[in-house]
Design a protein that fits this description.
Uracil-DNA Glycosylase, subunit E; binds uracil; 6 strands; six-stranded mixed β-sheet; about 230 residues
């Protein structure tokens, strides 16, 4: 009965503008409602989402409840990319809404950012069953979509959360312990951006001692943002 009610609420949030409902800060609600996203950006994002929705023979999609496309401000100059949705994200159709997402929100707020000021997506748009890591095949299949997604958003700063995002977008033979905390200039289609790799919040929950390294990375993002 309760579950049914919350499922209905989720449907309702999707129908209206969920971002507006989840954010109870009046001033932010006002801002969010007034994003003036250029028409071609809206069109391209919509087209990209439709292309992902029309994927055929995808087992991930077959097992998932919802596509998890993105959250945040499409006009932002900061884009964050995680691995793949988990159970909560699958249910709500939004990235990083579970426990890792709560930590991500705290990390963002430590450098005066929030979901209205950044744009968030994942390498994979559908939840892998049992929250397993996406396979190489799956990553290969979804890579053109996230690459196009980056090109459309055209961020000045691209934050890769964890090794799946790093290995998919930067290179396979690299390890996060060596690559994190460095700026890398990289081109995705027509988008030239500064990439920084940092630990995934789910990893930080398992290894809290690494939060000090993550804080170094966050400060680098804060300083770079000031230069934009
Ligand atoms: N972990 C991710 O990588 N992405 C999400 O959206 C949620 C958890």
């Amino acid at each position: 009965m309760f579950k049914n009610k919350s499922l209905k609420l989720i449907e309702y949030y999707k129908f209206i503008n969920h971002n507006l409902i989840y954010n109870n800060k009046a001033i932010n609600r006002y801002k969010k409602d007034n994003f003036e996203i250029p028409q071609d950006k809206v069109k391209n994002l919509d087209l990209l989402k439709k292309r992902i929705l029309s994927l055929k023979n995808c087992d991930l999609k077959k097992h998932a409840q919802n596509i998890v496309f993105s959250d945040g401000n499409p006009n932002s100059r900061i884009m964050l990319i995680g691995e793949a949705p988990g159970a909560n994200e699958d249910q709500e159709g939004l990235p990083f809404v579970g426990r890792a997402g709560q930590l991500l929100d705290k990390m963002l707020s430590a450098i005066e950012l929030d979901r209205n000021k950044v744009y968030i997506s994942n390498i994979i748009n559908y939840r892998p069953p049992d929250n397993r890591r996406p396979s190489e095949e799956e990553i290969k299949r979804y890579l053109p979509f996230i690459t196009k997604h980056i090109e459309i958003i055209n961020p000045k700063i691209l934050v890769l959360l964890g090794s799946t995002a790093m290995n998919a977008l930067i290179g396979k033979d690299i390890v996060i312990s060596k690559m994190r905390g460095k700026w890398i200039d990289k081109k995705f289609g027509n988008c030239m951006t500064s990439v920084i790799i940092t630990f995934h919040p789910a990893f930080l929950m398992r290894q809290p001692a690494q939060k000090k390294m993550s804080w170094i990375d966050l400060k680098m993002i804060r300083d770079k943002k000031k230069q934009l």
